[in-house]
Design goal:
Elements lengths: L1 H26 L4 H31 L1 H23 L21 H10 L22 H39 L5 H24 L4 H25 L5 H31 L2 H19 L1
Helix pairs in contact: 1-5, 1-6, 1-7, 2-3, 2-6, 2-8, 2-9, 3-5, 3-8, 5-6, 5-7, 5-8
């Protein structure tokens, strides 16, 4: 029973930092450049964690075949989920009569455009531009809604990444309890890397207009899943083969790397630009030193 509670504690620490990052992003108005810097730092931590705590140990214990299959499978799983969530929505074209053109007096070109929309051929070749608004004529509220929608989608994608890699990560934390207690390097690295995931995702969801109730339930659910997965790793995999453990471990690693490359680094680079590489390097080095000194 003591082992079950230790496994639950590992999952709670690892998943609980998602809630910490989410709460900070929701209640504190953090500048976007700071969020981007933390995301870049977290990306470095994640890359170091998957390299030294997940893939390397999986290859040593289970061999190259399950390591390779799990690593590719985790990446594909994340990419498929990413595409399903972030698939671009089709926007209906904005009619000039519904936007700024409706507030302007009719001009010959505008009259020709209206005639064309009614099925009558325009009289002047220059009237073609009047059939649709120029980009500068699209109402500002529509532009804002589209930008908010993009931010919200990015936030959901990061949350899905946290869930996809969080389940096998938590199972690994439960397995570590079987091998002699809580693994400080693994739990610490996962906890540190989860802060920018919760922070960056919640900041994007907030910009996208999501309600606080939705954000709270989202991260509470993911945190609960990590605790259950950690306990399951301890209880269900006590007699698991090294190959199966390697497969589960590297699914986490593949999902992590795909999420970092597709979401966290691009989001960070949009704000930090050249400094993105420096912050990621610092995060990688910090996690590596933790691994070596533990």
């Amino acid at each position: 029973m003591d082992g079950v509670w230790l496994a639950a504690l590992s999952g709670l620490i690892g998943g609980g930092t998602l809630l910490v990052g989410a709460a900070v992003a929701w209640f504190v108005d953090i500048p976007q450049r700071v969020v981007a810097g933390i995301m870049a730092l977290g990306a470095g931590v994640l890359i170091s964690t998957l390299a030294f705590e997940l893939v390397e140990e999986a290859a040593d214990d289970g061999g190259l075949v399950p390591t390779t299959v799990g690593f590719l499978g985790g990446a594909i799983l994340y990419i498929v989920a990413d595409q399903l969530v972030s698939r671009p929505r089709k926007h209906k074209p904005v009619s000039p009569s519904a936007g700024t053109a409706a507030r302007r007096p009719q001009t010959p070109d505008a009259t020709a455009g209206a005639t064309a929309s009614a099925g009558v051929a325009p009289l002047a070749t220059g009237s073609a531009s009047a059939r649709r608004p120029a980009p500068s004529e699209v109402p500002a509220n529509i532009v804002a809604r589209r930008a908010a929608g993009a931010a919200g989608s990015a936030g959901v994608v990061i949350a899905i990444g946290a869930l996809i890699d969080g389940i096998p990560e938590s199972i690994v934390m439960g397995l570590s309890v079987l091998q002699g207690g809580i693994s400080i390097p693994i739990v610490a690295a996962i906890a540190i890397s989860n802060i920018p995931e919760g922070l960056g995702s919640t900041a994007a969801l907030k910009r996208g207009g999501r309600q606080g109730r939705f954000v709270a339930l989202l991260w509470l659910g993911i945190a609960l899943v990590t605790v259950v997965a950690s306990v399951s790793g301890y209880v269900l995999l006590q007699s698991a083969s090294p190959d199966l453990i390697a497969l589960i471990t590297t699914i986490a690693a593949g999902g992590l790397l795909a999420m970092v490359c597709n979401t966290m680094i691009p989001e960070a680079f949009d704000e930090q630009h050249a400094l993105t590489g420096l912050w990621a390097t610092i995060g990688f080095l910090g996690a590596f030193l933790l691994h070596e000194l533990a």
